[in-house]
Amino acid sequence: MAKDAAPQTVAPASASASAATSEAGAAPRKLFIKTYGCQMNVYDSERMAEALGGQGYEQTDTPDDADMILLNTCHIREKAAEKVYSELGRFKQLKADKPDLRIGVAGCVAQAEGAEIMRRQPMVDLVVGPQTYHRLPDLMAQVDAGRKALDTDFPEEDKFEHLPKRPLPKRQPTAFLTVQEGCDKFCAFCVVPYTRGAEVSRPVDRILREAEDLVARGVREITLLGQNVNAYHGAAEGGDWGLARLIRRLAEIEGLERIRFTTSHPNDMEDDLIAAHGDCDKLMPYLHLPVQSGSDAILKRMNRKHTAAQYIALIDRIRAARPDLLLSGDFIVGFPGETEEDFQATLDLVRRVNYGQAYSFKYSARPGTPAAEREPVPAEVADDRLQRLQALLGEQQRAAQEGMVGREVKVLLEKPGRLPGQMVGKSDYLHAVHVETDLPVGSLVTVRITASGPNSLKGEMRPAQ
Ligand code: 5AD
Ligand code: SF4
């Protein structure tokens, strides 16, 4: 599963819609998209903006002047799902002031709740699931004709083939590229297999085409996305390719400097993918590999199909291939039946593995998942465990960041910093780094790290770059 990101709007500059006018040549209509949840939603929002660009929609970064508001939602935890309804509540007045305002709900809440959303919030005009947003133009036509539109199918056709070609002449230096969707793992707590459907991999040639196109538009780093990205098995001439082979082929694209992938399941870390971490220079030394718990009893009840010892042995193998790998993980505390001893096993695993980055959550019962039937751990117990786990993970994260001080790292400059003459970029290990330079966005520079702050590093350019 992809990690959660803070709610965000898709930057208007990243979508084709920015240059669009309606077919009749009238003033463009304004589209506001708010994205919740994982990076896959960030990618989907970009593609939805591109699809609506052809309908004359141009993006805006505020709902106040929008003609269409689209919430791209996340269903992973109860809080994320409920946020959608409170956000919709906030748009009530806007809709009252501007009856032509279109309001749409996309993403995993749309998939899970469908028509229920329109029942709870009748002002919603359109509900579209993650597998059918290529049909947005038709759905919008229905709405323009005065009807409500709902589409939460799992269609036969490949939505990516029906979406407009990615259009912007120039892009940011980093981009997401979805290569795989859905999940067949059925962890007992997780809604993803229900909201995103079965595992599907995009064919190799289409991914290569999209990657080459992104690179031609200025992208230097691509993060391959999938709910279970290392289960990738895409059709290619001569048979399916796994993720490692795809990465090695992408690494041949001139101008593409960095490749990352997220998010992975331990049971799909095959030998060639581990080897790629050691011998593919463009594959970055950062791996998000969730374990969720360190207790074998809980892992079994979670239906994770691996033990703590198997996970640790796997980490040792990956680190043998790439000793400087920075490891990231996801954890759930307070899963039904979790005892203090189970929780201690999670802390032990964290101490043994040593994470440079981590995301930890209190278990949230999700309707329709097997774990939701079980007796929950009292909320205050789960709260207390989350605090203790986060304290330990926070220490490890800080130590990993401070350990960078004095080292030389490569940084891809992504945007100007807050101070004049300063740029911000990411290191190979995904740390944010501030550096004084007049080089432009998209430069890949070597930097000596001089200091570690609360959320980022500071570095000095190596002379003569
Ligand atoms: N409750 C809490 N956390 C969850 N996650 C997935 N489902 C739930 C749930 N029901 C977490 C897992 C996953 C991450 C994206 O979200 O840790 O890896
Ligand atoms: Fe959810 Fe488990 Fe699939 Fe990840 S592997 S998406 S946690 S079911």
TrEMBL record:
InterPro entries: Elp3/MiaA/NifB-like_rSAM, Methylthiotransferase, Methylthiotransferase_CS, Methylthiotransferase_N, Methylthiotransferase_N_sf, MiaB_methiolase, rSAM, rSAM_horseshoe. Residues 402-463 form the TRAM domain. It catalyses: N(6)-dimethylallyladenosine(37) in tRNA + (sulfur carrier)-SH + AH2 + 2 S-adenosyl-L-methionine = 2-methylsulfanyl-N(6)-dimethylallyladenosine(37) in tRNA + (sulfur carrier)-H + 5'-deoxyadenosine + L-methionine + A + S-adenosyl-L-homocysteine + 2 H(+); N(6)-dimethylallyladenosine(37) in tRNA + (sulfur carrier)-SH + AH2 + S-adenosyl-L-methionine = 2-thio-N(6)-dimethylallyladenosine(37) in tRNA + (sulfur carrier)-H + 5'-deoxyadenosine + L-methionine + A + H(+); 2-thio-N(6)-dimethylallyladenosine(37) in tRNA + S-adenosyl-L-methionine = 2-methylsulfanyl-N(6)-dimethylallyladenosine(37) in tRNA + S-adenosyl-L-homocysteine + H(+). Binds 2 [4Fe-4S] clusters. One cluster is coordinated with 3 cysteines and an exchangeable S-adenosyl-L-methionine. Its cofactor is [4Fe-4S] cluster. Its main location: cytoplasm. Residues 29-145 form the MTTase N-terminal domain. Keywords: 4Fe-4S, Cytoplasm, Iron, Iron-sulfur, Metal-binding, S-adenosyl-L-methionine, Transferase, tRNA processing. It comes from the Bacteria. Its EC number is 2.8.4.3. [4Fe-4S] cluster 2 binds at residues 183, 187, 190. It is found in: Cytoplasm. GO terms for cellular component: cytosol. Belongs to the methylthiotransferase family. MiaB subfamily. Catalyzes the methylthiolation of N6-(dimethylallyl)adenosine (i(6)A), leading to the formation of 2-methylthio-N6-(dimethylallyl)adenosine (ms(2)i(6)A) at position 37 in tRNAs that read codons beginning with uridine. Monomer. This is tRNA-2-methylthio-N(6)-dimethylallyladenosine synthase. It comes from Pacificitalea manganoxidans.
